[in-house]
Amino acid sequence: MQTPKPLLPVGARRLAAWCGVVLLVTGVAAVAIWLCVALKTAVTPVLLALLGTALLGPVHRRLTKHGVNRSVAAGLTCVLLVAVVGGAGYIVVTALIDTGDQIVQSLKDAGQWVADHFGVEGNTNVDDLATNAKKLVEKFGASAAGGLLTGISLVGSLIATSVLALLLTFFFLRDADRAAHLAHSIAPRGAGDLVEAMGRRAFEAVEGFMRGTTFIALIDAVCITVGLLILRVPGAVGLGALVLVGAYIPYLGAFISGAVAVLVALADRGFVIALWALGIVLAVQVLEGHILQPVIQSRTVQMHPATIMIALTAGASVAGLLGMLLAVPVCAAAFGVLGELREGRLPPTGTPDAPPSGPPGEPPGPQGAPPSPSGV
């Protein structure tokens, strides 16, 4: 009997199969993103807690290694987190409040300088823009006052989210040793090792990103602040604080904070000092891009700048500023999972999972000898 000829050639069938896979993955990702947006009140504290756990995990492990009880170590780590974040927030807010007027005035002078030297036509100047902005704020002042309850609700929501994220950080740190057992219990039969490996790789990527970004942000902020202080640029501490905060948004944050520093130097100290400020900012960025990032983040998932920009744009479109802050860590975790899927091997179907023998951060213990070909 003659075998019927396929309706489509092999190439077309393979293309159709890959299109089906892409559509399926895209649909699952779209549903997952929709659920995250719909449940953002619960998802946001979890993501923030995971970032805090990734940043403070080494501190907790060091404490437990020296014999401190896991719960006590988690509590001390959370207290350290509150102290560091609260202290840094106080320093940043105080610096911006103390130097905010100087920075705004310098930016206004810089805008006027650009308008005068580049021949911008028209009767509108920077003072007119500031006056119009003030009138606009006064015009909508009644509406803002009417929305006072909404503002109070927003503040309450932020406080509740912060407290919940802190509590989740405590539990994540304390119960991190149970994560491997959880992965084996929820995974399909025979896939526990792969799920555990993917979870470890994703968390290691986020952990490396958080530690590296924090260290790089501190170095950038200190270097730029010292340079601006040497040049006697007004508001140098506030500009350094802006650099510190902006460093958590790759590329875009550094560009905005550096541009503000150069404009302030241009307005207050003149064109030559502005060039020196630009040189300092560029030198710090070169130091970061060619030395700090390759050395500090060499063990994390390396992403192309275009990938990071796409992730930032997608995060901003989904969740605004919070989405921009979370986009790169989530993308790093996704790349870690994809790397593990590419390198890993699926276990044979029907192979039972054995519970892991070590805590997170250590490879699981042996799973026993493989079955003989006869099945005995």
H/E series, N to C? HHHHHHHHHHHH
Report the end-to-end length measured between terminal Cα atoms: 42 Å
Pairing-aware structural class of the strands and helices? mainly alpha
What proportion strand? under 5%
- Mean pLDDT equals 74
Give me the count of strands: 0
Specify the biggest β-sheet: none
What's the number of helices? 12
Shape: globular
- How large is the radius of gyration? 26 Å
Description:
The chain is an all-alpha fold. It has twelve helices and no strands. The protein has helices spanning 10-38, 40-65, 70-117, 126-139, 141-146, 148-174, 179-186, 192-230, 236-246, 252-269, 271-296, 305-343. The longest helix is centred in the first third of the chain and has 48 residues, at 70-117. The chain is globular and about 85 Å long.
List keywords for this structure.
0% strand; 376 residues; disordered C terminus; mainly alpha
Brief summary:
The chain has 376 residues and is mostly helical. The protein is built from 12 helices and no strands.
